[in-house]
Amino acid sequence: MSTLIVKNIMTSPVETIPMDESVEAIKEIFDNSHYHHLVVLGDGGKCAGVISDRDLLKNLSPFIGKLGERTSDLNCLKRRAHQIMTRQLVAVRANTSLRAATRVMLDHRISCLPVVDKDKKCIGIVTVRDVVRWAMSELEAEPTPEAQQDEPGKRAA
Question: Which residue among 6, 71, 100, 141 has its CA within the 20 to 30 Å range from the CA of 106?
């Protein structure tokens, strides 16, 4: 079996946003999609950072949309992507082994890795969910102990 690489399981295309996107627009994207991560693009369309749904939640007032909502609560929606994104970008290339990419996610305690080309342009994203989805498909493809017992030529133990 050949080495599994990130390109085989990454999600592409990726939802990207500019550095100056408002938190309000970011909240709308998360509210109306199945995404859990957005890649923030900087100069020349290069990956500059990542915003997770958890990053967004940390930056929202819990009073938004509630009876006790104040002007100061609404001001958090005016902040920009570059103010809440994770700037220490950790990314991989499409030909990185899945084993190495998973190790990077574990070592850095992150849940996604943008996949970039040689010019640092985002071509995909690999997430913990992608890795779990792949692992589950591998587990489901394995024969169960019951199925092995039913195979011709095998003796029941």
Answer: 141
